[in-house]
Specification:
binds 5,6-dihydroxy-NADP; two-stranded antiparallel ribbon; alpha/beta; 15 helices; binds zinc ion
């Protein structure tokens, strides 16, 4: 049964090869000062920076840049951006990059005029902003997080060794997002496939929760099947537009809040993955890949019906002559083969996790309540140990 909910997603999308054509019209809605936010320089190498600057200049905008936003953006960097945005009097923050740049820009948008302690208010107490919010627009260059159409802002506090995902309300969602699948063609394979698994994980963490059938389960099965199909093509030919465009669209729907409406969600894999990143600075999607199989094998028996359904409807496993447990396990084994095909990291040791760090990583892991089995701290350590044993 679906619970009660209100639903609104205010982000306007421009999708396709000509998506950047939508920027000019969007810029007209804002006053002069545009804070251009980007990462470590990939947009300068692939020409996206030049295309965006040209449109900003032709639109008569005053531009101030905040560059060097790192993957797993830090709180210190967030404060730097907030100061720059306020001093400049930014009318619009234009994020050009992946989830990190987009998440960071949302953080800056609510931090610039915040009079409280930004970390404590937004990333510890998880409160909504009460101050002026600077609008954010996004030109997406990396696919996976769904940040282009949601209120997520994941920030790492390096002093506290915490990586926290705040999920802001509609007023912080990007006002618009430009999604050109061709912009993702220059992604290194490691980032591309990490993004693919991030998408899969977002869907699984919403699918594996709750006991009832609902529309979202059917939507999610379709999204997963599309992702598996297209990712197999993209990994062989990264320039396949059809595959990359399908994946980009799947990523947006995987985490633009729709499929979570009215149902429980899990998110424990993300909590463990984020804790690994807080201690190692590892790539987000790879941390999820490294803990998913140990986690799902651990909880499978508590949600056997859903794991069996996953095996049959997503991986095409036949139930004939098998126990529910055998069918369910075959589904996870099929997922493991797919993960190997993509070349994902399955042993967290490759991400810098060491046995002596497990206690500290467990301390940084939030325990969620919505999964089929609520983990204990010992359970988190067991998941990490199993990942380190993976051969
Ligand atoms: O910094 P540059 O030079 O741009 O390089 C980036 C970065 O090194 C590179 N890149 C991006 N687009 C490229 C490109 N390289 C070549 N060509 C391109 N077109 O890719 C690297 C990774 O970028 P990043 O933005 O960090 O990746 P992603 O999009 O996976 O974002 C990860 C962040 O998003 C958070 C994660 O925790 C992590 O901090 N998440 C945000 C969520 C949300 N808003 O809802 C949910 C997710 O679960 C996730 O937690
Ligand atoms: Zn994610």
């Amino acid at each position: 049964m679906l619970g009660n909910f209100e639903y609104c997603n205010p982000t306007k999308l421009y999708f396709g090869k000509n998506a950047l054509g939508g920027l000019e019209g969007e810029l007209k809605k804002y006053r002069k000062n545009v804070l251009l936010v980007y990462g470590g320089g990939s947009i300068k190498k692939n020409g996206i920076y030049d295309s965006v600057i040209k449109i900003l200049k032709e639109s008569g905008k005053e531009i101030r840049e905040v560059s060097g936003v790192m993957p797993n953006p830090t709180y210190a960097k967030l404060l730097e951006g907030a100061k720059a945005a306020k001093e400049f009097g930014a009318d619009l923050i234009l994020a050009v990059g992946g989830g990190s740049v987009c998440d960071y820009s949302k953080g800056v948008s609510v931090a610039a005029y915040c009079e409280d302690d930004v970390w404590e208010k937004y990333y510890e107490r998880l409160e909504e902003p009460e101050c002026k919010i600077i609008p954010v627009g996004c030109v997406l260059t990396m696919v996976g997080t769904g940040s282009e159409m949601n209120g997520g802002s994941v920030i790492t506090n390096t002093d506290k060794k915490m990586k926290v995902g705040q999920v802001f309300g509609e007023n912080v969602f990007p006002k618009f997002a430009i999604l050109n699948p061709e912009y993702t063609f220059t992604l290194p394979k490691y980032q591309m496939t990490a993004g693919f698994f991030d998408i899969m994980s977002h869907i699984m963490e919403q699918y594996f929760s709750g006991s009832d059938d609902n529309t979202s389960d059917y939507i999610m099965e379709g999204l997963m099947r599309s992702l598996i199909h297209s990712s197999r093509i993209a990994v062989k030919n990264p320039l396949d537009y059809e595959a990359r465009s399908n994946i980009m669209w799947t990523a947006t729907w995987a985490l633009n809040t729709l499929v979570a409406m009215g149902k429980d969600t899990d998110w424990e894999v993300h909590m463990i993955g984020q804790a690994i990143s807080a201690h190692t600075d590892a790539t987000h999607g790879m941390t999820l890949a490294a803990v998913s199989l140990p986690y799902y094998k651990m909880i499978m028996q508590y949600g056997l019906y859903k794991f069996k359904r996953f095996a049959v409807n997503v991986w095409g496993v036949s139930e004939e002559g098998k126990t529910d447990e055998e069918t369910a396990l075959e589904g996870l084994n099929a997922m493991e083969s797919w993960m190997k095909e993509l070349g994902l990291v399955l042993n967290a040791g490759e991400l810098g996790l060491k046995p002596e760090m497990l206690e500290a990583v467990a301390d940084s892991t939030l325990i969620m309540q919505g999964g089929y089995k609520v983990l204990t701290r010992a359970g988190v350590i067991k998941v990490l140990e199993d990942s380190l044993k993976y051969e």
